[in-house]
């Protein structure tokens, strides 16, 4: 008799990703027989514990080393002990090495964004120190639907509405095997395998926007429109992702065409030709402006649509307005038909 359908589903999803990682390693590696290390990022919840269990099972079969990492955000009483317990359970499943890492969460961009930034910085450092080929993340189709709704509510652009990518990060480091699986599947997989899970109280705290979407907005939509809402939102994310990828490629090509020869004031910093920018379609032009702001040092997670709109007005609605300030201490100003975006200098 085969495994429970939920267990079979999570294992198949992880198996496919591990095959992709092995193929990537085979193309890039010159070391014959190297066994790549793949880490499961685990909070102790059902999604990530299901992910860890599937990694243990499939890694043994495929000759992959399976490890784990859990992050202590320090935002709850007893969080350090919780991280230690999660690490102990990951080792009990058979993962090795396993790291429990503490982070300091700042305030930039709000509590959820700050926690995410701290978490990914820790995952990057851990993957680099252990030489991991990839880090698996337990995001499900439900998480994807929530991300799309949050993007809609915030008036975000196509890239935000595209949700989470199956492969992301430097060199495709982050892999999300469960984006086509729902949350019920991961919970059932843990239940039938006898895996204890921890419910993060923040996931039910209405102070957090994602919790409100999960427990209030989505249930209302499903009651009014039917239970296919989550799957439809996830499909929408993929359609937006395809469009966003095409527009990003167009913008990357256009960015090279609009660079002016030099900054008009002679100081360091790239300048963009506003006449050439003006002729671009708005969706492409705004991507070029966003790329330029990020390259100048504005954090992408703090650069919102309203900032890009202000930049765009320096190109399309020029009335002699002065410089605008962007997150990260970056300044944008127009002068002599050039748009200069760079870090502000205090002596100005």
Automatic annotation (TrEMBL):
All copies of domain tRNA(Ile)-lysidine/2-thiocytidine synthase N-terminal, residue ranges = 38-216
Q: What keywords sit in the KW lines?
A: ATP-binding, Cytoplasm, Ligase, Nucleotide-binding, tRNA processing
User: So where does ATP get bound?
Assistant: 43-48
The record's subcellular locations are: Cytoplasm
Q: What is its EC number?
A: 6.3.4.19
Functional summary from the UniProt entry? Ligates lysine onto the cytidine present at position 34 of the AUA codon-specific tRNA(Ile) that contains the anticodon CAU, in an ATP-dependent manner. Cytidine is converted to lysidine, thus changing the amino acid specificity of the tRNA from methionine to isoleucine.
Domain commentary: The N-terminal region contains the highly conserved SGGXDS motif, predicted to be a P-loop motif involved in ATP binding.
For this entry, the protein name equals tRNA(Ile)-lysidine synthase
């Amino acid at each position: 008799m085969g495994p429970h359908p939920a267990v079979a589903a999570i294992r198949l999803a992880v198996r496919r990703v591990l095959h992709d990682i092995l193929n990537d390693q085979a193309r890039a590696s010159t070391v014959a027989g190297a066994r790549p290390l793949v880490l499961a990022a685990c909070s102790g919840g059902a999604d990530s514990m299901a992910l860890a269990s599937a990694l243990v099972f499939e890694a043994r079969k495929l000759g992959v080393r399976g490890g784990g990492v859990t992050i202590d955000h320090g935002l709850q009483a007893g969080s350090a002990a919780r991280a230690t317990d999660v690490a102990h359970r990951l080792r009990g499943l058979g993962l090795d090495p396993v790291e429990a890492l503490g982070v300091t969460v700042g305030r930039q961009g709000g509590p959820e964004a700050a926690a995410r930034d701290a978490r990914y910085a820790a995952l990057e450092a851990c993957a680099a120190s252990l030489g991991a080929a990839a880090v698996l993340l337990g995001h499900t189709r439900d998480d994807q639907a929530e991300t799309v709704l949050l993007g809609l509510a915030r008036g975000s652009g196509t890239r935000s509405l595209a949700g989470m990518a199956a492969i992301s990060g430097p060199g495709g480091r982050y892999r999300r095997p469960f984006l086509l699986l729902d949350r019920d599947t991961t919970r059932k997989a843990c239940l039938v395998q006898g895996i204890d899970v921890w419910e993060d109280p923040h996931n039910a705290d209405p102070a957090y926007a994602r919790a409100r979407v999960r427990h209030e907005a989505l249930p209302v939509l499903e009651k009014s429109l039917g239970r296919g809402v989550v799957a439809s939102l996830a499909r929408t994310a993929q359609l937006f992702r395809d469009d966003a990828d095409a527009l990003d490629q167009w913008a990357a090509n256009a960015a090279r065409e609009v660079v002016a020869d030099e900054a008009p004031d002679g100081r360091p910093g790239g300048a963009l030709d506003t006449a050439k920018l003006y002729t671009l379609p708005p969706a492409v032009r705004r991507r070029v402006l966003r790329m330029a702001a990020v390259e100048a040092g504005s954090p992408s997670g703090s650069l919102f649509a309203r900032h890009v709109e202000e930049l765009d007005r320096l190109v399309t609605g020029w009335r002699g307005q002065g410089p605008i300030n962007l997150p990260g201490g970056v300044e944008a100003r127009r002068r002599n038909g050039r748009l200069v975006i760079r870090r502000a200098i205090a002596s100005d």
